[in-house]
Design goal:
The chain is of the alpha+beta class. It has eleven helices and 17 strands. The strands form five sheets. It has a four-stranded antiparallel sheet. Strands 5-6-7-8 form a four-stranded antiparallel sheet, covered by helices on one side. It has a four-stranded antiparallel sheet with strand order 9-10-11-12. Keywords: Metal-binding, Zinc, Zinc-finger.
């Protein structure tokens, strides 16, 4: 009768009775705790008494029992196994539900109704199809648009509790800050209008840079380059790289050029730049102009990996192109191998014949053993 009562109250428990006439019983199955079925194995050597009862279960229910230990053993002792199981189910279920409710409450965002009313009205004006991301409390959101050239742009907006009277913070991938005069009556609508006008004004800059990115092997910045970047480092066919800085106001004009490589190769090219910069043609691309003025081809984007390896543009010590966002910018005048500043400095420090002088270290090139020097890293 006692076994039947346990199985009635816990229908997912199955009894495994021992020898006939023995009071011992074992139950195996599941107990519902907080709406979750937990597998249990219960041994009752003096069934139906709770004396000597042992229970084995999963780690989750075990942690609940541990947390509720003081409540389970508070007051009178349990006379029967059924009484103990019912109390266990009640206390652990109550504890589990309270923990879940607390966890859910902690995750809820507290919404500012005046802010939300104004913001929703402004986002309705902008169009919800352009909202790409929004935080739970609506204080941070991102808007996306496409410019005339089909490029996708995103602006991130953060509003304070004083919105719309308080000016929002704006973050966008642009080479300059968004210029706008904030009007509380327009709110974020006016900010987005100013952002889109700035995108229109930057079309020529991005067209020039996109042409270069698609035709030349760009060493830096890594692909895809951020829209804010106005510099590109490209590779010439004679192992010299050129750092280009495009003008924001006049992107098709002659850019600032910094030649990187062994002096025996960069010196003649620097002379060519000085002599022929007036031949720069505004109707031609940067790549074509450089090849015409310097008389040296620009390495094309096709076959990037094989060309990088064959040209030896990676650091000859770590065999990587980028090291902590830095490119190899030191070149041995004798063998033309290039090195990261940090790599070469650490190499030279490990050589017994290297010597220091103020902020410079001198030593042998790792490849040709000729004299090479570098400054101490910042």
């Amino acid at each position: 009768m006692a076994v039947l009562e346990v199985c009635t109250r816990f229908p997912l428990l199955s009894p495994e009775l021992s020898n006939p006439g023995s009071p011992a019983a074992v139950f195996h199955g599941f107990i519902d705790v907080g709406g979750i079925d937990h597998e249990v194995y219960i041994s009752t050597p003096h069934f139906p008494s709770a004396v000597g009862l042992t229970l084995s279960t999963d780690c989750h229910l075990t942690s609940l029992i541990t947390a509720c230990h003081s409540h389970l053993h508070q007051g009178k002792k349990y006379e029967t196994a059924l009484e103990f199981l019912l109390k266990l189910q009640q206390i652990c279920s109550s504890h589990s539900n309270s923990v879940n409710c607390k966890g859910e409450g902690e995750g809820l965002a507290v919404l500012n109704k005046p802010l939300l009313d104004s913001l929703l009205m402004h986002l309705d004006t902008i169009g919800w199809s352009r909202v790409s991301q929004v935080s739970a409390d609506f204080t941070v959101f991102s808007l996306t648009t496409r410019d005339e050239g089909g490029r996708t742009h995103t602006v991130k907006v953060k509003v304070g509790t004083g919105y719309p009277q308080e000016q929002p913070e704006v973050e966008a991938d642009l080479p300059n800050n968004i210029a706008f005069s904030y009007n509380p009556s327009e709110g974020v609508v006016g900010v987005v209008d100013a952002w889109e006008k700035q995108l229109c004004a930057l079309q020529d800059v991005w067209q020039v840079l996109d042409e270069l990115d698609s035709s030349a092997l760009v060493l830096d910045p890594p692909a895809p380059p951020p829209r804010r970047a106005l510099t590109r480092r490209i590779l010439l066919e004679n192992q010299v790289s050129v750092q280009l800085s495009v003008s924001l106001q006049h992107p098709r004009c002659f850019p600032q050029c910094h030649l990187l490589g062994p002096s025996r190769l960069t010196s003649p090219l620097a002379a060519m730049l000085s002599q022929n910069f007036q031949d720069w043609d505004l109707e031609r691309s940067i790549k074509v102009n450089l090849e015409t003025i310097l008389g040296v081809g620009v390495v094309c984007k096709k076959g990037v990996k094989s060309r990088e390896e064959s040209q030896g543009i990676e650091c000859a010590i770590c065999y990587c192109l980028h090291f902590e966002d830095a490119l190899p910018d030191l070149t041995c005048d004798s063998c033309s191998h290039t090195y990261h500043l940090q790599c070469l400095y650490e190499w030279l420090c490990g050589q017994t014949n290297s010597r220091h002088s103020v902020n410079v270290i001198f030593g042998e090139c790792p490849f040709c053993r000729e004299l090479i020097m570098c400054k101490l890293p910042a």
